[in-house]
Amino acid sequence: MGSAEQEPSTSARYLGAAGDAWAAEARAEGRRGTQRIVRAGEEPASALVAERLSLRPGEPVIARRRIMYADDEPCELTDTYYPVSIARGTALAGTAKIRGGAVRLLAELGHVGTWVEEDVTARLPTPDEAATLALSGSEPLLQLVRLTEDAEGHPIQLDVMAMAPGRQRLRYRFRAGDAGG
Fold first, then answer.
1. How many whole angstroms separate alpha carbon 64 and alpha carbon 92?
2. For the segment 91-129, what is each residue's pLDDT rounded down to a tens digit?
3. Do 83 and 89 contact (CB within 8 A), yes or no?
4. Edge-to-edge strands of the sheet including 33-44?
5. pLDDT for 2
């Protein structure tokens, strides 16, 4: 059916230090993937961000908002959050594209992602999300929340993605029976 070299999920390629994984994924599907960083800097953590990054609501985090495009059509909003102890004063806090990607930079800073937890839900978009992703207000979107932790279980990155479901695909592959060890 598939080889052992296949990635176990669509998300796996985003967890390695391989530069622009979004462009590579789109290229593999015969599309052109681009992204635009629309906001970056320090902001207070929302309840969700605080909970996942083991902070108190309102504590500062470094946040980056990107709009992902497939063939020039917006298909995903990605908000990435980092603890300020990791990202303050680094390229993660700016709007410039990070050479080699954020995962590589995190590794250079001594923060290697080892554990990943993802939650996927469907919900109605906010008015801003619907406008940016060209969705009707009654068309649901997929929300993927991905927490990346280091080997000791310390949170190093949180991604909150709002995806136009007709323009995205999530794939997970794993060996049956591996859940219990």
1. 8
2. 999 999 898 889 999 999 999 999 999 999 999 999 999
3. no
4. 33-44, 60-70, 73-83, 155-163, 141-149, 115-123
5. 41
